[in-house]
Amino acid sequence: MTNRSRECLDVIVLGGGPAGAAAAIISARAGLRVVVVERCRFPRSVPGETLHPGVMPLLEHLGVAEKVLAAGFLRHAGHALSWGGAERFVAFGCDEDGPWLGFQAWRPTFDAILLEHARQLGVCLEQPSQPRRLLRAGGKILGLVTDYGRLNARFVVDATGRRAWLAHQVGLTAYRVGPRLTAWYGYAMGSCPPRDDAPVLTADEAGWTWVARIRPKIYQWTRLNFDGRRAGVPVELAGLQPCQPTRGADVTWRMVSPPAGPGYFLVGDAAAVLDPASSHGVLKALMSGMYAGHLIAQIVLHGQPATLATKVYTNWLTDWFNHDAQRLIESYSMLGHSA
After folding, report:
1. Which is the most buried residue in 101, 123, 139, 301, by most CB within 10 A?
2. Cβ(291)–Cβ(316) below 8 Å
3. CATH 3.40.50.150 corresponds to the domain 3-46+107-178+251-333
4. Per-residue pLDDT reduced to its tens digit, 56-66
């Protein structure tokens, strides 16, 4: 990238995960000049993800549906659920063509598909590279300095996940709902036939456990204890070979306020976090990235007032967060837990 092109960008996206890649793809397809700054080399190790069939229209809109289908991810028609009662199967649904199938996406491959598609659309990629400081004037973000140097742009999209880099730099407040929560997760190699056909979510008065086969002979598990205790490998996977040490992720419910403002949008987990029991994490990341990209295009290309666009985005994300938080509160109350 020439020095001249670095001075006249429309969008800088921090983070090359699903939210960031979606924002970059939508922005680039509108004809905007976009740079993605990603700190990790790909493929990177991130937890596997169960994708609801409802993700397909989003993948089609982004232009990656065929590549995702060709990736050979495991498919399933629903998941098993035991939420304080007997285990039952919850199907995604069906139509005249048969049952709707979700994906058990292997995230290193899924993320690489999205980011490569963005690059093919003309998005410039700085990788590995990290943001070092913001460029601001008059209360508006004007760009930032990265490992590669200075980047000037009309908008910065923060898709750095739970790091929420931009929010910390600007001093935005993340309001928290409920107690601190940690989700513990790991991988095991071997055979567990009862979990080969579909993932399972099992809840009790102490918390919940998720187990899914994410690749042939590889299973991922997640456990959240309401009292914050560290979790270990679920009993049904205890005889399998651990693939890596158990890791924890802070999944305390929180939302940054405001998630959009003068020269910036926050997307995905950089904007709002709920624990994985809320489900559809990647779907939410894609939708927030796509919406931010569309709004930026409306501002830059069609003169939509930026204050209106950021207000619309803030209201949309806030309503979504509050709705899902209320659903989680109701679900946890069935277990006798007050979130």
Report:
1. 123
2. yes
3. no
4. 999 999 999 99
